[in-house]
Amino acid sequence: MRIAESNPGINVNDITDDQVVDVLSGNAVLNGIPVSVVAA
């Protein structure tokens, strides 16, 4: 937790939709999330 606390910012909860679930298992879908990466 020390590293996470010292680097606040975006996390997986900010970019995932808690309403999207796998039909067969009922688990949250956390794979295949499209992202864009650009140079700063």
What report would you give on this structure?
By secondary structure, the protein is mainly alpha-helical. The protein has two helices and no strands. 0% of the residues are buried.
In short:
This protein is mainly alpha-helical.
Features:
40 residues, 0% strand, flat, 22% helix
Please describe the topology of this protein.
Blueprint: H1 2-6, H2 12-15
How many E-type strands? Answer: 0
Flag low-confidence runs.
none
Output the radius of gyration: 14 Å
Order of helices and strands: HH
Question: How would you characterize the largest beta sheet?
Answer: none
- SS-based structural class? mainly alpha
